[in-house]
Structures are given as C-alpha cells and as structure tokens.
Specification:
The complex is a heterodimer of chains A (395) and B (261).
Chain A: E1 10-11, E2 14-15, H1 24-39, H2 41-55, E3 61-63, H3 65-71, E4 74-79, H4 89-102, E5 107-112, H5 116-128, E6 131-137, H6 138-143, H7 145-153, E7 157-161, H8 168-181, E8 186-187, H9 198-206, H10 208-221, E9 228-232, H11 237-243, E10 253-261, H12 272-275, E11 277-281, E12 284-288, H13 313-320, E13 324-330, H14 331-345, H15 351-362, E14 370-375, H16 383-393
Parallel strand pairs in A: 4-14, 5-6, 5-8, 6-7, 9-10, 9-14, 10-13
Antiparallel strand pairs in A: 1-2, 3-4, 11-12
Helix pairs in contact in A: 2-4, 4-5, 4-9, 5-7, 9-11, 10-11, 14-15
Chain B: H1 3-10, E1 15-21, H2 30-39, E2 44-49, H3 59-70, H4 75-82, E3 93-97, H5 99-105, H6 107-117, E4 121-123, H7 129-142, E5 146-147, E6 150-151, H8 157-166, E7 171-174, H9 188-199, E8 206-209, H10 215-222, E9 227-230, H11 232-240, H12 245-257
Parallel strand pairs in B: 1-2, 1-9, 2-3, 3-4, 4-5, 6-7, 7-8, 8-9
Classes of the chains: A alpha/beta (395), B alpha/beta (261).
Chain lengths: 395, 261
Amino acid sequence: MNYFVDTKGYYGNYGGSFIPEMLYANIQELQDNYLQILESESFQKQYRELLTEYVGRPSPLYFAKRLSEKYNTNIYLKREDLNHTGAHKINNCVGQVLVAQHLNKKKIIAETGAGQHGVATATVCALMGLECIVFMGEVDVERQQPNVKRMEMLGAQVIPVKSGSKTLKDATNEAFRFWINNPDSFYIIGSVVGAHPYPDMVARLQSIISEEITWQLAEKIGRNYPDYIIACIGGGSNAIGAYYHFLNDTRVKLISVEAAGKGIDSGKSAATSILGSPGILHASKTLLMQTKDGQVTEPYSISAGLDYPGIGPVHAHLFETGRAIAQNATDDEALQAGFLLTRLEGIIPAIESAHALAALEKNTFKKDDIVVVNLSGRGDKDMGTYLKYKDVYLK
Amino acid sequence: MNRINQLFEKKQQNILSIYITAGFPNIDDTATIISEIEKSGADMIEIGIPFSDPLADGKTIQDSSSQALQNGMSISILFEQLETIRKTVSIPLILMGYINPIYQYGFEAFCEKCNAIGIDGLIIPDLPVWEYTEHYKELFEKNNLHNIFLVSPQTSSSRIKEIDSISNGFIYIVSSAATTGKTSDISEEQISYFSSIQNMKLSTPQLIGFGISDNKSYTTACKYCHGVIIGSAFIKALQTSQTSIEKIIHTFIQGIREQKK
C-alpha cells in the first residue's frame, strides 16, 4: 500500500488539485518546483539551520514518568510545545517561507483559525523582512485577541473575514480569493490541506517531527520505533509530521484523535471521519462535513485549531486503508486530559494537543509498550478557557 | 445541434450572456427570471447553482448564493423548476456551479438530468482541465453537454491553445486576475491581453466575463471577442431596484445594449 502522494497529487481516492483556472499557473509553478527546492542543498542547509538556531529543535522526546505510571505503560511526549511560537506550526512556516524566497515571492498570505499558524507565519515574515497578510474569521478575531495583537506586533496585517460563518473555513476561502486577485503573492497554507502539492509539501516540512522521534527513541530505548503514535487531527499537519517516517512501518500503530466537541451526535462536533463523507473543499477531495446537497457545514470544537470541516486528504486515505485509526475526544475529555497533564507533569498543553492525551484514557496499553504522544502545542493561548473550567476539573 | 453552437453559428458579435443565481432573490424566481432575460433580448443564460464556499466569487455572488441557500435552493429543486423550461425558453442555457454539490448529486445523474431538461453546457470553475479529460469528458459528450473552460491572464498561450483544442461551445475569458464582481474601467493591460487572445485566432468562440458591468465595458470587450458575460452587475440590479422583476431585467439589458444618450 502506498501512503505517499502519487504523481497526480492523489492519496488513493483523495487529494488532487481542484483549483479554478485563475490559480493554475501558481499551483503549477509550485508543483514543478517544490521537490527540487525542498531537496536542494541550499534549502536543506537554511531550513535545518533555522530549525536548530531559531525554532529550537530538536524538540525533546520527554519520558513522562508520572503519566506512564498512571496508565501503566511507557509514555513519551514529543515536545512541539517548546518550539518558538509555541507549536509545531513554525516547522512548516520556516520551510514555506524559504520556498517563497526561492521562487522570488515578496508578499506572503496565510489563513488562520486560532491564530497559531498566523503567528508562526507573521514570525517568519518578520524574520525575512517580507510583507505578511493574515486572513482570520471575524469570530476568531474576537475570541483570539492576544494572537491578533501578536501578529500585528510582528508587522502582519490581520484581515477579519466577514463572509460565511466567519471562521477558519471562510478565512481559507478569503485567502484563496486574495490569491486569485494577487497572483504575485505566495500562500503559506497551515495544514496538509489545499491543492496538490500543498498537502505533500506541508507533510514533508512537518516530517522533521518523526525524523527526530526515530533517532531519539534509538538513543533512549535502543529501538528506533514506538508501538503507538497518538496525535490530534484538525487538518492533520502535526499528525502527519509525527507519522511520516513510520508510515510504511506497520509495527507502529497510528491513532488520530478528532475533536468530538459536545459529542458525536450533538450537532456540535468536528469528528470528520465519522460525520463526514467524500467531497471537495479548498481544492482537494477529502472527507468533508456537509449536507446531503453538498453544502459545507460548520464544525464545532472547544479548540479553535480543530474545528475545520475537512481533514487532509492523506488522513482520509490513512483512515480508508486502515493504516491510521480514527478516535475522538469530546471537549470534556480533552479538558480533563489537559488538567491531568498539568498536574502530573507540570506541562500545560494546548487544548488541541489535550485531545491526543485524552486517547490515553480510551486505549489499553501493555506494560512494555512505547507510546509517543505528539504534544503539538502549549496551552498559553488557552488560559482563558482553562481558567473558565478550572473549578470543574481541579477538585 | 447544441444550442450554443447554433447561437455562435448565426451570431458572431455582441453576444450577451447573463448569469443568475438560482433561487435568488426568491426561491421561485428562477424560471421567471430566465424567461424575462430571454424576452429582453439576451442571447444566453448561465444559471448559477449556489454553494456555501464559492472560491472564485466576489462579495455580490457570495451574498446572492448564501441568500439562495437560505431560501432552500438545491440542485434537486432547481431541476424541478427547470423541468418544463424548454416549453417556453429557446436560448442556450448553461449551468454554472462548484464541483462539490454536483459531486454529491452524482455526476452521472446530474449530466443525464441536464440533458433531459435541455441544458447545453456546464461551467464548473473548480473542475480542472486534467480531471475533466480524464474522468468526465465522455459523460459530458454522451449527454450533449459542452464543458466551458476558463482562461485568465495567468494562462499561458500554449495552455490557451490546448484548452482551445478540447473546447466546444465557447471559451470563457476571465478579464483580469480577479474574483467576480470587480468593476473598474477596462485597462490598457486588459486590452492588450484581449487582443493577444484575439490574434491567436482560436477555433472556439470566446466570451469575456468578470468585471463587465455596463454599456461601456460591454462595448469595449465586444471589440475583442464574440461577446460578454455579465453576472454581479445583474445580481446587484435585482437587489437594488424597487420595481417589478420584469421591469428591472428589461431596463438592465437595454442599458447594456444601448449607449446612454
């Protein structure tokens, strides 16, 4: 079974590049050049150097002793939360901004939901001295003010999106529209979504996570693969980053945790693999939450980073082939897991990453299993939410 | 013969095609609007199937689409409304819509229904050329449907030629690097882009769309191709005026055709 993208931009039945003709030249330029750029010596040198010196990689693979005792197994946390800007998003932005420079693009655009990808994009643009425009749904602008201010302080222009439901899906629409109107700009997509080659390019740039897991495990336990990798999935960039080097190694079980919101059947959920069906949004064929008439519906999750109505096409393929197992966690389960990690390990996780931690409760591991949880981001941005629920969960 | 080909056979200049959003302003307006557009002397009609996430559209058509969806419009309802349209309307009719709603309806059932009703062509902006030739061409042809391709200022001349070679009906020339509904005077840059396409002597007729909104832009654009497509400006007219829909449509189309005295 092939888990990587084919020459037409497909992962099995999913993927492709369903773009209007107005973007054909831009996408074609990327398709023709991205592999050559990513594999070039000059790119690799710059990318690796920035990851080490600027992002702070390698991120530790931390053995969580007390958490392991609780679940009676061996749990390692891949500490993407310790990256500069607080999440895995920066890995991708550092790479894409270099790709933009190789293609001689001066103006960067991005979409953002919670603001993490927006902040990471604004950060690398400040670093490179590039103009940066970030599209953010008006609803998200209101509920993520600190990130809006961070982006502005970094010199980015944040454009509140008033169309549709005014959240991530609409911010992405608006970024695409701006790109149609300004074809000289470079669109840094934040997840493994969008037209080919974006899902593959973003996956490759995030694959530094699994690359490090490989040698870090070898150093720690003398074996270069775990039994399980657990990651949360909205679009799915941190998950594919953590899986990438293990996709063909079926000894490693992959668990992707979606946001169930208030419950799968509550009408307020973002569990796309259960609630979605094949469809086409943002230029790729994937699993999509939609009405029977093909209108895209609005997902819900307490975590702004997981409430996207689709998943990356690679994840639709991994689910369909059974390579990855889809599980989910409700708002409640995620919060519980977030507070638990805080008190057991002294780490406040992003609520997105807390969904991955919640899966520890739902699976039974053997005593000698090696379980890696990708801790994709830190919880600073979620303090408002955590504090609101503090009294419920910390008794 | 397909009605689009018939039209271009008898008329090579000043073709006016009007875009409407199905189910806008009211859900039951579709058939009336189509008839009135024909009576007012337009040559062709594009019926837009509303979608929740119209990537290539500007604010006007985004808004008309969400209004239409709120009104309850869907492909099934549209097909019901168009069931008997060919009893009264004889100009070419094209359905324009994003791929996902069509994909959910089922491409095969969709094309067969279009054929049964008497639809002549489809414009699916997010169905790329490769996907079409690989997966859908046969199905379209079997159902006597022309797939109308777009070209934009970003499209290379070799690609324009390639598109010309697989096109039937007409080619939709997107007037500038823009989403729909941007109105400003046609620039020198646009003129040179239009004439470069004109000089390519393509075998498929061409219509210019996006940003054509009044008699002035219509007249200019028509010098370089077979005619124009007007969408956002028409949708705006439907929104703003207070008189009857018949009157609005008649006045609008007359205003496009005739220079203001």
